[in-house]
Design goal:
The chain is an alpha/beta fold. 48% of the residues lie in helices and 17% in strands. The chain has 13 helices and twelve strands. Helix 1 packs parallel to helix 2 and helix 5 packs across helix 6. The longest helix has 17 residues.
Length: 272
């Protein structure tokens, strides 16, 4: 893959910072299979470049950081490679594996898979306009790995279950209170704050930071195995009518009727 990305922007600055931007603002920076492949390429590129001390992940525009998988590219499986047609587990693992901090610059909505990415990043700095939350069970999906198990490590079991079961949206200040983000600043000060954090990190010992990151990750590395098993189950779920109902309802802008497919249409009609 060349540097001519279509779904992302990539920038290496002279101050030791690489910025990776999901560039699909018309889709609220939702990702498709190709987007994730480009993100993986960019993280590999910045991750092993010794001149880069920090990677910043963000979304184009002012509306969204990332809103997860693009439902228009999702009819059962997604449109790319991997267990679910979307190598998102590979990207999640890579964000953890690169030997330098990854900062999520949350400039707007961080919903669904976008919320998972913001959670997995080493640090998360949010605009006061940001909103975070999950939507999986509303659209026939779930992240049965880092998106659930690691989230529980970050915000606690009770809060993580609330986030997934109720699919509410949380303000940046609410996210800060639960430990989901590190800092919240006025929207117009977001870049300056991210730059300050990056400058402090770049001034520190890269080897010490790399070792610290690996030590932090070791405590939750078992979740990678949970994710692998969970993604295999998710692939089977995506092929069910129950899951497909979520995607169809989202695109048709109506409330989904999951229970009809879960119970079975004949049984549902008999009960009525």
């Amino acid at each position: 893959m060349t540097q001519n990305y279509t779904d992302i922007l990539y920038e290496e600055r002279n101050d030791g910072v690489a910025r990776i931007t999901i560039n699909r603002p018309d889709k609220y920076n939702a990702f498709r299979g190709h987007t994730v492949d480009e993100l993986i390429h960019a993280f590999q590129r910045a991750g092993w470049n010794k001149r880069i001390g920090v990677i910043v992940l963000t979304g184009a525009g002012d509306k969204a950081f990332c809103t997860g998988g693009d439902q228009s590219a999702h009819d059962g499986q997604y449109d790319g490679r991997g267990t679910i047609g979307l190598p998102i587990d590979e990207l999640q693992g890579l964000i953890r594996d690169v030997p330098k901090p990854v900062i999520a610059r949350v400039n707007g909505f961080a919903i669904g898979g976008g919320n998972v990415l913001a959670t997995i990043c080493d640090l998360t700095i949010a605009s006061d306009k940001a909103q975070l939350g999950q939507v999986g069970p509303k659209v026939g999906s779930v992240d049965p790995g880092f998106g659930t198990a690691y989230l529980a490590r970050v915000v606690g079991e009770k809060k993580a279950r609330e986030i997934w079961y109720l699919c509410r949206r949380y303000s940046a200040q609410e996210a800060l209170a639960m430990g989901l983000v590190n800092a919240v600043v006025p929207h117009e000060e977001l870049d300056a704050e991210v730059d300050r954090w990056c400058a402090e990190i770049v001034a520190r010992s890269p080897t010490a930071i790399s070792l610290a990151k690996r030590s932090f990750n070791a405590d939750t590395e078992n979740i990678r195995g949970i994710s692998s098993l969970g993604m295999a189950a998710l692939s089977l779920y995506y092929d069910t009518e129950e899951s497909k109902e979520g995607g169809r309802a989202f695109l048709e802008k109506r409330a989904p009727d999951f229970r009809r497919h879960y119970v079975g249409e004949a049984a549902q009609e008999a009960a009525e």
